Amino acid sequence: MNDEAFRLVPIGVVHSPVADRRLMPPNGVEAEIEIFPDFADGLVRIEENSHLWVLGWFVDADRERLELVRPEYDPARRRRGVFGLRSVARPNPIALTATRLLAVEGLRLRVAPLDFIDGTPIVDLKRYSPSWDCIFSARSSRDRYLIDWDSPERLAEYEREATNFHGELCGWVIIGARIIQHLGLLWKVHPKDEDLRVTVSDDPQLTHLADALQALTAATLGNGRLRVTSQRKVSFTWRERRWTVAPRPLPDLPLEAFRSLAIERLIDECS
């Protein structure tokens, strides 16, 4: 192949309340994508899709660095190549994220969440197709080797993963993320460890929590890691250990409050 430049044409630009990449929340924010008039025809019937893949261009990315050191991984695996990461540093700084399409207003698409800062050029949009793009059993290095058990960023990732599976962010999703983070702190076990077994409740009041726990552990009936009980409890077993908790009734609180409450306020440990 000849060493020649590819022709890349921006089709739009991001309008976001966040202009500094260092201030972007891990889960992103609600934002708008303005499509340039020359590409208006590409939006015909785009509103029939609930989610989109958004491809942008990291203008200020480091295009020379191919390895990074990630202190949040265990020490033997902290040096990593950028092709196995989601870092902005890469030879061709293409940004990729999936987001919900909230509204189409002329040439503007309102989306959430989007983790591109204000002014990011958009180079393409594609529909998100669950039958093609959703691989529930997938694993990444983050599922195996991260050791930042108690970081807010880790909790935010758990919330986002559970929300994507469940379909919405709710109090039980946040509590499920808190339970999984606490479990990691107790046992130093990753939630998708193949030896971790999960029992969820089919109590109607806990079905949202069951979704969250299944999402975060990737436990299924098929892989033998998931069990269902009629009791109002959830439990985890790993090697010789067992931890059973009874979630308390969902308090009438703003969602943000669930992140700040002590875990003991949300669950009762059982013998």
Mind explaining what this structure looks like?
This protein is of the alpha+beta class and about 270 residues long. It is built from 6 helices and 13 strands. The protein starts with 11 loop residues before the first strand and ends with a strand. Strand 9, helix 5 and strand 10 (about 225-230) form a beta-alpha-beta unit. Helix content is about 20%, strand content about 30%. The model has no long low-confidence stretch (mean pLDDT about 95). The strands form 3 sheets. Strands 1-2-7-6-3-8 form a 6-stranded antiparallel barrel. Strands 10-9-11-12-13 form a 5-stranded mixed beta sheet, covered by helices on one side. It has a two-stranded antiparallel ribbon with strand order 4-5.
Task: Write the SSE topology.
Blueprint: E1 12-15, E2 29-35, E3 51-57, E4 67-69, E5 79-81, E6 94-105, E7 108-114, E8 121-127, H1 130-133, H2 141-145, H3 152-166, H4 171-187, E9 196-201, H5 207-217, E10 226-229, E11 234-238, E12 241-247, H6 255-260, E13 267-270
Helix pairs in contact: 3-4, 3-5, 4-5
